[in-house]
Automatic annotation (TrEMBL):
<keyword id="KW-0675">Receptor</keyword>
<dbReference type="InterPro" id="IPR011009">
    <property type="entry name" value="Kinase-like_dom_sf"/>
</dbReference>
<keyword id="KW-0245">EGF-like domain</keyword>
<feature type="transmembrane region" description="Helical">
    <location>
        <begin position="452"/>
        <end position="477"/>
    </location>
</feature>
<dbReference type="InterPro" id="IPR000858">
    <property type="entry name" value="S_locus_glycoprot_dom"/>
</dbReference>
<dbReference type="Pfam" id="PF00069">
    <property type="entry name" value="Pkinase"/>
</dbReference>
<dbReference type="Pfam" id="PF01453">
    <property type="entry name" value="B_lectin"/>
</dbReference>
<dbReference type="GO" id="GO:0048544">
    <property type="term" value="P:recognition of pollen"/>
</dbReference>
<keyword id="KW-0418">Kinase</keyword>
<keyword id="KW-0325">Glycoprotein</keyword>
<keyword id="KW-0067">ATP-binding</keyword>
<dbReference type="GO" id="GO:0004674">
    <property type="term" value="F:protein serine/threonine kinase activity"/>
</dbReference>
<dbReference type="InterPro" id="IPR001480">
    <property type="entry name" value="Bulb-type_lectin_dom"/>
</dbReference>
<dbReference type="InterPro" id="IPR036426">
    <property type="entry name" value="Bulb-type_lectin_dom_sf"/>
</dbReference>
<dbReference type="GO" id="GO:0051707">
    <property type="term" value="P:response to other organism"/>
</dbReference>
<feature type="domain" description="Apple">
    <location>
        <begin position="337"/>
        <end position="407"/>
    </location>
</feature>
<dbReference type="InterPro" id="IPR003609">
    <property type="entry name" value="Pan_app"/>
</dbReference>
């Protein structure tokens, strides 16, 4: 009896052990084979052979999950990569499935594909010891068909490259996986940059943008655009970027992360006896002083150390959103053109960029008058001694900085004249300790009474003055030649006075006598400093020299990431040429309409192009120094850079209008040279006494939106090119949109037929429906019923944000 009982116990225990082993293998495995899946409910995951990395569903909200790779043996399970960072899945019923066709897909609760590797022929999915998730074939070659290392999010692991086509994008906030506003990328000059790319402005901030590339110890001549981190803590890149961890060694786990606050940091994992709860330490940081990161405090905000980085608003401004300082401050007053104005002093403060008419050797009163006379001037900076004057049309990236400069803020005369006070608020920005150098400011939490703020600044400025003097003497004695005595102020001035006059012989040499033609009258060239440029011949230019240069002086001051950067011009005898940056991937027309073009534009690329073009036109219409109409918006004038970011060219060349000139009639001599392209011209251009306004560009943009959707020219949709046919097409689309509002976009078969068949149904139905509705409103025959470009941009951004949530359809 006892033997039978003992045998029964052994059988039960053995069965239990087998059951536990099978459960463990179901929860944690090393490989996914075809047909295998991981669900949210079972908390399944892939584990690397060493156990250092895990891959599976990561909880980001109460019922929202991403598919991610994380460090297993860390206290906070630090995420290194995310597949669906902007499209979390439902916590119930969602799967990561390795399909029979060899592709790894994420399926939401309703069965929609939220993300896919888009592979075929794959036999297994495996997480390697490097933290790289791979889809591989089991044939003789053992090929890697897809790998997460090719699609970084905000982190680079040792051995993972950053290339010309890939970038790091920060998270939007601490603990949130969604994409933020900061980017690490190679620019068109082959330089690795940190950039703030916000909804209102974009600017680079690392390496120091006021220095030339050679002053930053970089090179622009290596176009391979490649960088990687090795296991010892050394990062190298093709532009000579060199990063060394303070604890170099091969037995430490590391990661290079672009954090939510815009700073790039190299982290090392502490060697702790408790291997499952180790923490990270910073072993290198790109921007030692967090206030030097752009966009931290938004528009009008000022970043200062109290003792940690803190955002404040000038007197007369309040925080737009105290919970999110990237939204900056808003005015409590209004400055109207023609009103009497006064200026409030903000000592020791600077706002980066957006200068116009930078001049040196002026008196304070002269500089003040420049700002008074220009209605677009919001403030001016002035440095005593040198007489440097920085009138500003916008106020971004403010910080307590150079004690030689004072910002004078333009306010209505009714506001009491007194020294400006920074309204104290607690900023969300924090810095982490980094063992890099003695001048890195370590952060300690605590309160600092506002009464001691200026005392603290005084001590800080004295220390900075000592370091600056020592640095100047070091440079002076090390490189005594006058050519080596370049100051940051000179670089800063050069950055905003880059538009210069070229000699015709110089451009002839740069283009090898205009040998390589990019388009009609446009030639590729390389300047002496290594910059690739496009040189455009201007035909039928009849203006006198003074008028020609006056118009170009406005165009030369325009700077927006979605506008081709203008470097200068040539005006010698009959030669009139424009020099602009060279954009890598040619025009949107070739990418969209040429079936043999090497680029294949996916849906996300098309939507990004639509948003970028809208940003550029909104900038020209609403934010520029002068109100500029493009008058020839079409795919041929939209260029694509290496990242498929759109850049509009030929802006301001067809006609530069002031706000008064736009009210003149079509027959006015001011508008006599306005031209456009058939198929993109607004109908009011045919009327003699109707003014041309920004709504003409809106119409052309609407046509471009339709072509992005369809993948072919609008004129090919109809049997002939008569306007009545296009109107019938628009009317038909309006009727179908009315029906679409009553049903789900995913169930609309006609929408599937409308969108470019080359996408094979891989597009967002919600975004496509929104883009179509917006395009139809833009091509309305009545200009008054068309939206402004600001409204167009906001709707596109809103649709993009909505699509990032659970309502997105693929």
């Amino acid at each position: 009896m006892m033997r039978r009982l003992l045998l029964l116990v052994i059988i039960i225990l053995g069965s239990a052990l087998l059951l536990l082993a099978s459960c463990a293998s179901a929860i944690s495995r090393s490989v996914l084979w075809r047909g295998d899946s991981i669900s949210v409910e079972e908390d399944g995951r892939l584990v690397s052979p060493s156990g250092n990395f895990s891959c599976g569903f990561h909880k980001v909200a109460t019922n929202a999950y991403t598919f991610a790779i994380w460090f297993t043996r860390t206290a906070d399970a630090t995420v290194a990569w995310t597949a669906n960072r902007d499209d979390p899945l439902n916590g119930r019923g969602s799967l990561a499935k390795f399909r029979r066709d060899g592709s790894l897909v994420l399926l939401d609760l309703d069965g929609r594909v939220a993300w896919s590797t888009n592979t075929s022929g794959g036999d297994r999915v495996q997480l390697l010891d490097s933290g790289n998730l791979v889809v591989m074939s089991d044939d003789a070659t053992g090929r890697t068909l897809w790998q997460s290392f090719d699609w970084p999010t905000d982190t680079l692991l040792p051995g993972q490259p950053i290339t010309r086509y890939k970038r790091l994008v920060s998270a939007s906030a601490r603990g949130l996986p969604s994409s933020g506003f900061y980017n690490l990328y190679f620019d068109s000059n082959n330089i690795l940059n940190l950039m703030y790319d916000g909804p209102e402005m974009s600017s680079n901030y690392w390496p120091p943008p006021y220095n030339r590339w050679w002053e930053n110890n970089r090179t622009a001549y290596n176009s391979s655009r490649f960088g990687s981190l090795d296991t010892s803590g050394v990062f190298t890149a093709s532009d000579h970027t060199l990063i060394n961890a303070s604890d170099t060694g091969v037995f430490t786990m590391r990661r290079l992360t672009l954090d939510y606050d815009g700073n790039l940091r190299l982290y090392s994992l502490d060697d702790d006896s408790d291997s499952d709860s180790r923490s990270w330490r910073v072993s290198w940081v790109a921007v030692p002083r967090q206030c030097d990161v752009h966009g931290v405090c938004g528009r009008y905000g000022v970043c200062a150390y109290r003792p940690g980085p803190t955002c404040s608003c000038p007197d007369g401004y309040v925080a737009a959103d105290p919970a999110d300082w990237s939204k900056g401050c808003r005015r409590l007053f209004e400055v109207r053109c023609g009103d009497e104005v006064d200026f409030l002093e903000m000592p020791f403060v600077d706002f980066y960029g957006f200068d116009f008419n930078y001049t040196t050797g002026l008196t304070l009163e002269t500089c003040r008058q420049i700002c008074v006379d220009d209605c677009n001037c919001e403030a001016f900076g002035y440095k005593k001694g040198s007489g440097e004057c920085f009138p500003k049309i916008a106020m971004w990236s403010g910080k307590v900085s150079d004690f030689r400069q004072t910002i004078y803020l333009k306010v209505p005369m009714s506001l009491l004249k007194q020294p400006a006070v920074l309204l104290d608020h607690v900023c969300r920005v924090t810095e982490r300790d980094a063992n890099v150098s003695a001048d890195y400011l370590r952060v300690k939490r605590g309160k600092v009474e506002f009464a001691y703020f200026y005392w603290f600044l005084a001590v800080l400025f004295v220390l900075e003055a000592v370091f600056m003097a020592a640095g100047y003497l070091f440079v002076f004695f090390r490189a005594p030649g006058p050519a080596n005595k370049l100051r940051n102020e000179e670089g800063y001035a050069t950055l905003f006075s880059h538009f210069r006059r070229f000699a015709y012989a110089e451009l002839s040499d740069a283009t090898c006598r205009f040998r390589e033609q990019l388009g009609k009258g446009v030639y590729k060239g390389v300047l002496d400093d290594g910059r690739a440029v496009a040189v455009k011949r201007l035909e039928e230019m009849t203006q006198v020299e003074e008028v020609f240069r006056a118009e170009l002086s406005v165009i030369g001051r325009i700077n927006h990431m979605n506008l081709v950067r203008m470097w200068g011009f040539c005006s010698e005898d009959s030669h009139r040429l424009l020099v602009s940056e060279y954009v890598d991937n040619g025009s949107l027309a070739k990418a969209l309409f040429d079936d043999h073009h090497i680029l294949v534009l996916g849906w996300q690329s098309r939507y990004k192009i639509a948003v970028g073009v809208a940003k550029a036109l909104a900038y020209l219409h609403h934010e520029c120094l002068e109100w500029i109409l493009h008058c020839d918006v079409k795919p041929e004038n939209i260029l694509l850079d290496a990242e498929l970011q759109p850049k509009i060219t030929d802006f301001g060349l067809v006609k530069l209008l002031s706000r008064d000139a736009c009210r003149r009639s079509r027959s006015s001599s001011v508008l006599s040279r306005v031209r456009g392209t058939r198929g993109y011209i607004a109908p009011e251009w045919a009327l003699m006494n109707v003014p041309i306004t920004g709504k003409a560009d809106v119409y052309s943009f609407g046509v471009v939106l339709l072509e992005l959707l369809r993948g072919k020219r609008v004129c090919d949709w109809v049997e002939d090119h008569a306007r009545i046919d296009f109107n019938l097409l628009v009317a038909s689309l309006k009727d179908k949109l009315t029906i679409l509002r009553c049903e789900e976009p995913a169930s609309s078969s006609w929408l599937e037929e409308l969108v470019d068949p080359r996408l094979r149904g891989d597009f967002s139905r919600l975004q496509a429906a929104g883009m179509l509705e917006l395009a139809v409103s833009c091509v309305d025959d009545d200009p008054n019923r068309r939206p402004s470009m600001n409204t167009v941009l906001q709707k596109l951004l809103a649709s993009d944000n909505d699509d990032a949530g659970s309502m997105r359809y693929l």
